[in-house]
Structures are given as C-alpha cells and as structure tokens.
C-alpha cells in the first residue's frame, strides 16, 4: 500500500471511531435524560426523585388524637427519668411521644432503648429528626399508632403526659399488659384510685410514679 493510501485508511478509521464514540455518548445521555423524565418514571413534574434513605415513612392520621400536643419542659423530663431510675437495660415507651424528647433524652443520657408512640404523623417526623440531631437513632424508634392499639408489653418503663380521663381509660390496659415491676411515670395527671408510690413537684408541675404490682387489686382492673 502506498503511503497516500495508508494515510487515507488511517484518517477514515479514526473519524469513524470518533463518530461512534460521540454517537454512543450522545445516545447514553439521551437515554439517561429520558429515564429521568416524568413520562418514563410516571412522576409528575413536582415529584422529587426518591433516593433511598433511612428516614421512616408516615401515613395520614387515622383519627384525631385524644390529647393535644404540649411538650413536657426539659426539667420535668429529667425528673421523670430520674424518679424511674432509667438505665441502659430499660425499654422505655412514651405513650403519646410528641417531639420525642422523653425517649431521646433517655437514650442520650442513660443509653436507654426507647419507643415513642404518637398518632400524629407530624410529631413522628419531628421526633425522628430530633433523634437524628441527638445521635440516638440506633436506640430509639417512633411509631405512628393509636396508643390504645399498641402492644407495649415489652416496656420496663412507661411515661405519660396525657389527660386525667385518658389515664383512667388506659389504666386497665397498663395493669393487664405490663409486667410486674414495670415503672410508670406520669406528668401532671394521676390515675384515680391507683395511688402513686411517689409524687414530686418540679417547677410547679406534678410528677406521679407507680410500679406495676404482682397482684392487681380488683378495683383497678
Ligand atoms: C401532651 S403531648 C405529650 C408529648 C410528650 N410525651 C411530652 O411529654 O413532651 C400528648 C401527645 O399525645 C399524642 N396523642 C394523643 N392521642 C393519642 C393516641 N390516641 N395515640 C397516640 N398518641 C396520641 C398527641 O399527638 C401528642 O403528641
């Protein structure tokens, strides 16, 4: 092959290869763009592409709550955890957990495993965000659920900030399902005929403390 012919073959080969690469890259770019497009993914234009995260999901609220959201002041949270002597071997359930402060504080200060139950999805989202900030997501869980339909039998400590009639409605379930020796702490409201073992006043607020007995008196069931 003459030098001229060899040069022609070389130039043509390089051009075709370049075109192939360019074509392939363009095609790939077009495909990626198409894959992201709303028509292919079935998303509307306002929907964000979902990336897998550890953030738990919530559902619409099943019914209105029995108690409005009012957070327990931090000093009272501390006193509730102290009176119950929570530790790293405890499993603490906060029934109506709000922004998760009782569960998250127990996990952060004492290494306690905690479960927060709240009927309101906004509270669950807040509680999870607060758990992230506190660095306790490995020890806590927030579940969107009606506390009257919750199995809390694994608890060794239960905390409450509800209302007097809700405490009374919950009392038979607490006494039926919790193990003897489980500690219960309530901010602000007592449980009628079930007399507390201790009552504290913290910054003008009442804190009540009970321990589930081996034998539940008939009048409390
Ligand atoms: C007074 S706040 C207490 C929040 C938190 N425990 C604290 O002490 O800071 C009561 C919480 O109970 C929740 N709640 C009300 N009724 C409920 C129900 N039936 N089941 C679960 N949560 C409920 C409310 O959404 C609210 O967050």
From TrEMBL:
Keywords of the record, alphabetical order, are: Methyltransferase, S-adenosyl-L-methionine, Signal, Transferase
Q: Where is this region: Disordered?
A: 33-67
Molecular function (Gene Ontology), one example: protein-lysine N-methyltransferase activity
> Where does this protein have coiled-coil stretches?
none
Matching entries from Gene3D superfamilies are given as: Vaccinia Virus protein VP39 (3.40.50.150)
Question: Which parts of the sequence belong to the Methyltransferase domain?
Answer: 91-194
> Short name of one Pfam family for this protein?
Methyltransf_31
Q: Which residues form the signal peptide?
A: 1-22
CDD domains linked to this entry: AdoMet_MTases
The GO annotation for biological process reads: methylation
Q: Where is the composition biased (Low complexity)?
A: 36-61
Instruction: Return the InterPro entries for the record.
Output: FAM173A/B, Methyltranfer_dom, SAM-dependent_MTases_sf
Tell me the protein's name.
Class I SAM-dependent methyltransferase
Q: Which organism does this record belong to?
A: Atlanticothrix silvestris CENA357
């Amino acid at each position: 092959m003459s030098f001229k012919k060899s040069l022609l073959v070389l130039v043509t080969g390089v051009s075709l290869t370049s075109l192939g690469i360019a074509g392939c890259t363009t095609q790939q770019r077009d495909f990626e763009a198409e894959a992201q497009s709303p028509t292919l993914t079935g998303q509307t234009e306002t929907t964000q592409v979902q990336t897998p995260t550890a953030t738990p999901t919530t559902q619409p609220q099943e019914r209105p709550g029995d108690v409005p959201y009012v957070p327990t002041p931090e000093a009272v949270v501390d006193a509730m955890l102290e009176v119950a002597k929570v530790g790293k071997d405890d499993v603490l359930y906060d029934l109506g957990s709000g922004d998760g402060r009782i569960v998250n504080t127990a996990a952060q200060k004492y290494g306690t495993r905690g479960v927060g139950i709240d009927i309101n999805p906004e509270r669950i989202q807040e509680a999870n965000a607060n758990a992230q900030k506190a660095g306790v997501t490995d020890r806590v869980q927030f579940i969107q659920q009606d506390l009257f339909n919750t199995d809390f039998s694994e608890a060794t400590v239960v905390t409450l900030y509800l209302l007097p009639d809700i405490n009374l409605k919950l009392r038979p379930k607490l006494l039926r399902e919790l193990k003897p020796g489980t500690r219960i702490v309530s901010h602000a409201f007592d449980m009628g005929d079930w007399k507390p073992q201790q009552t504290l006043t913290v910054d003008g607020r009442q804190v009540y403390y009970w321990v589930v007995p081996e034998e539940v008196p008939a009048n409390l069931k």
